[in-house]
Amino acid sequence: MKRHLIEDLKFRQKINSESNESFNQMLESLEKKVKTLTEECSNKKVLIDSLKQRLSVAVKEKSQYEQMYQKTKEELEKKDFKLSLLVSRVNETESVIAEIETAASKQLQGLALQSEQVLEGAQKKLLLSNEKVEEFTIFVKALVKELQNDVRVIRQKIRELKKMQKNREASKASTRKAQSLAASILNISRSDLAELLDTEDEVEMKKTKIDAENDQEWLLYIQKLLEGQLPFASFLLEAILEKINENKKLLEGYFTIMKDIR
Prior knowledge:
With 262 residues, the chain is mainly α. The chain has helices at residues 2-171, 173-186, 190-227, 233-261. 96% of the residues lie in helices and 0% in strands.
């Protein structure tokens, strides 16, 4: 009986031992699971804290974005209002420009008509001015020709008076005696003496030729002034006065010779 009890106790002890071992294993396994779960919980807590921080940041950013959105919306509304005002002003400006263009077109048409009339008047004045210039040129050329002719005539008359004076002096007896005396002093014949005296005529002819060349140059100078660029009035006046003064001096010389002959 005791033996049976002892065996039964041993058996139970063995079962208990096995149960304890199994329980210990299970406990160890549970501890590991608890540890793992604890770590997981800790990690999840850290993750949750991180998510909370990120959520807080996201909430702040959302609030900022909402403020920015509201501000942008208000600015857009203001810009839309300004744009509508600008469009209205542009329309008004276009209307005013259209009116101005219409008025300007009418004014331009009027000005074109006036300009055409003014141009016709200017053309008539220009034509009249050209005619006056042409008449003035004709007058100047006629005046120059007349002055030149007067100078030429006076020169011719002076030469004739000098020749007449010379002939009168040569016809006098005293002159003939003086010529004979001069020929004897020079030991030449009277014909040679006459040739010497004729050299005065050659000098006079050379002077006449030079005067003619100067007259031609003067005429060419006047022609150049009339065909040249403005202004030329002072030069033209100076040239004409020069010829008038020359004519005046020739007249004075002419009257002096006339007095001597008389």
